[in-house]
Write a structure and sequence with these properties.
about 270 residues, mainly alpha, two-stranded antiparallel sheet, 7 helices, about 0% strand
Length: about 270
């Protein structure tokens, strides 16, 4: 990045130098009788001086003014020595070169300093904002983990029931006298209860680590009933009884059912 900036600085310096040399050449090559053109060329010195002051600050402005004066003074001596009053005006114009370079450079330095301060303030505010975002995310995660702890208590009760069913079904299957139909029935119970356990654990994990939404048409009443079944035991311990009442004509909702369940759980 520094090499690119250095290259830009060299190009700007070349532009300033070229402007001063071209203006000086125009002075020397224009006959003295073209006084109007000499006045125009004299004013053209201000362009590279102002450009140097903006690009390099007050030092650059003074350097460009000095170079312009060095290039212009020999022309004054050779061309206008027979007109003392006009010569004095030309020397006074060179003094103005320095004043313009100095004032413009000081203003440019001040603006550059102000811009740098704004950039530093912006960077600092951005850093503070990122830190606040990280702190907020940590607070949200802590709150979510707290909610998970409460859900874990209710899940313990929900998991105990399917485990009891699986244990009972397994005990019956151990009996060698049970018929094939009985084995099929209780194997189905085991599969059903295992799926129920997996669903409960999946809901808990997805609550801890939210995922992108997957939209689908959902029966709202059934979804609310499933949430009540999940937290009903915990609510009963606090003396709260949960129940839902939904109209049969209630339309299906286009949403992510698992994420809406998280909202209801919160």
């Amino acid at each position: 990045m520094s090499s690119v900036r250095q290259s830009q600085q060299w190009r700007r310096a070349a532009v300033v130098l070229a402007g001063i040399l071209l203006t000086s050449a125009a002075h020397y090559l224009t006959p003295r009788s073209f006084l109007l053109w000499h006045n125009i060329f004299q004013k053209l010195y201000y362009l590279p001086i102002v450009f140097a002051a903006i690009a390099f600050g007050w030092r650059g402005g003074l350097a460009a003014a000095l170079l312009s004066g060095i290039c212009y003074i020999p022309h004054i001596i050779m061309t206008w020595k027979e007109f003392p009053s006009y010569t004095i005006n030309q020397y006074a114009e060179i003094v103005v070169f320095f004043l313009v370079g100095l004032v413009t450079g000081l203003l440019a330095d001040r603006e550059r300093k102000h811009k740098k301060e704004l950039e530093q303030s912006t960077e600092q505010l951005g850093r503070v904002y990122r830190e606040l975002q990280e702190s907020f995310e940590q607070l949200k995660r802590a709150d979510r983990l707290s909610a998970i702890g409460q859900l874990a208590a209710s899940l313990a009760h929900e998991i105990r029931n399917p485990l009891a069913s699986i244990e009972g079904a397994a005990g019956i299957l151990q009996d060698t006298s049970c018929t094939r139909d009985t084995q099929k029935e209780f194997l189905g119970i085991i599969v059903k209860e295992c799926r129920r356990l997996n669903r409960l654990l999946t809901n808990l994990l997805e609550f801890a680590r939210p995922r992108p939404p997957e939209y689908q048409a959902v029966d709202v009443a059934r979804m609310v009933d499933s949430v009540i079944a999940l937290v009903g035991h915990l609510a009963e311990k606090t003396g709260v009884t949960l129940h839902a009442s939904a109209s049969p004509s209630l339309p299906r909702l286009e949403c992510d059912p698992e994420q809406v369940k998280q909202v209801l759980l919160n």
